[in-house]
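Hi R.,

Here are the chain sequences for the assembly we discussed:
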Amino acid sequence: MIKKNCSPAWLETVDQKKYQIPFKANQSVFSLFAPVFGVYFIQTGTVKIFLTGANGNKQIVRFASQGHLFGHRGSKNETYGFNASSMNDSVICFIENHLLNDLFENNPMFSVSVMMYYSQELRKMENRLKNMAQMCIREKISDAINMLWESFGTNKNHELEVPRIREVIADIAGTNIEQVSRQISDFEVEGIIQRRGKKIVLKDPEKLKKILSDYYIS
Amino acid sequence: MIKKNCSPAWLETVDQKKYQIPFKANQSVFSLFAPVFGVYFIQTGTVKIFLTGANGNKQIVRFASQGHLFGHRGSKNETYGFNASSMNDSVICFIENHLLNDLFENNPMFSVSVMMYYSQELRKMENRLKNMAQMCIREKISDAINMLWESFGTNKNHELEVPRIREVIADIAGTNIEQVSRQISDFEVEGIIQRRGKKIVLKDPEKLKKILSDYYIS
DNA sequence: CGTGCTTTTGAATAGTATCAAGGCCGGTGG
DNA sequence: CCACCGGCCTTGATACTATTCAAAAGCACG
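And here is the predicted structure of the full complex:
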């Protein structure tokens, strides 16, 4: 997003002033109430954006991956209202607020591309809101598994390589581990997935998508 | 948004090329699958953005009001994936795609302000997603009533002036009219609201907000 | 081969949606 | 002016879905 839309001179400035930070899997990038000093760009890896409820349970709202930005100060917010942490080994760039503002002011196409990114994310989020309101648990869990599959793919053994995957699915779908476990059992009977130890293998992605077909416009 | 951030010359061009369209209450601005020819800016009034599910039931995802824009082509989308219709008598400006693109390219601060708008809406939507996942019906309905109150206020009789308000609340909260009706009854006993014919009067906004206090960071 | 943690499954419970009936209100026409 | 009618609103009973609690089984690690 940044490389395509900024002038070479500005790219050099960014290169000089950016902080390149490596994260291991499952490390916090920032937490609720932390002060906003700048913005994060993902070079490699994936980050989960999640909120925490009164009772302490998480809600994963989206993933950000290569080329995406997150943790941008929405308005005059001085502190974060959500959390971000790495899902796998990642390299993340940090850019300070004033440099970011300079970039926006001097690279019109950069602003436009960030705007388009937010616009698309907003649309996805609106659709996701509808899904959370209308889907039953079976469908929400299907949706969560599908999201994970699209975001992370599978390892060479065709397994979804996400640590504590049941918990992650529950945090996406807005339910608890027990329901996820039950649903996985059902899906195994239906031949959609297969359990291999704690890992799960997606045997029939098409069947999974079919469960969701009413909710996504082809 | 547009007036503050565009140069006088461009404002004149916009003035010449814009289409100013009056809408009566409850009129469709555009519907699912309609082609995207441009973008809408609200001069006066409020518009509801809603999606429709497989079973045909609506989900109102947000309201847009004075100064806000909606119906912007997210990426290469040629058709809309959602619906917009007026909640009250409104005046809405339509601007064609190519003019909008020219505005973005030539008025950096305009792009930035639209970006900030989307960024804020995205954040609100993420929070709303969490709420839909974690709130019980009582809380979702409280939230919906609060949204309506903040968006539309009350008329001179302190009534929430929204036609078919129970249906609207249900479509925001993701439930049905019966649940809304029950909850309104309960709220009347608790002294939070009062029924006056089909209209409802918000007697104690603070008590309503207290129900929601766990979900919004002060 | 324990030990502690995760996962699975069952049973009880709570919460919500659905179905159905009756009540209220406003508008219309006699 | 009043009675009726249709649409919206309310309430109750019931069915269903999802959560919670609890216990047993599986797995990974020392």
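The beta strands of chain B are 19-23, 28-30, 38-44, 46-52, 58-65, 69-70, 83-86, 90-96, 193-196, 199-202. Chain B has eight helices and ten strands.

Let me know if anything looks off.

Best,
T.
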